Fold this protein.
Amino acid sequence: MQGNFMYNNSDINHELKRIAIDSTNFLLNNPQAKQKKPIDLYNQWSRENDISINNTEISNWTLEHIATMKNVDTNLLEEALRLDLN
C-alpha cells in the first residue's frame, strides 16, 4: 500500500476490503485485543504485517475499523469473515 499514486474508487474499495479482512483476522488471533488501545492494535497489526499506509483517509478508516471491531463478539467477527471470504 505504499507509493505516491492516485487511488480510484475501485482501488480504495479493494484496499478497504483487504484491510478489513486482514485486521479482523488479526483481532481474532489476539485474545488480549479487547484490553488494548486501538492505536496500539493498529501499530501492532501494521508492524506484524509489514504494512505502511500512506493514505490518510485509509489510515484513519483502518484505525476506526480496528477500534470498532475490537469490541465485537468473536462469533460475530468469525461469521463476518466467513461471509466476506465467500
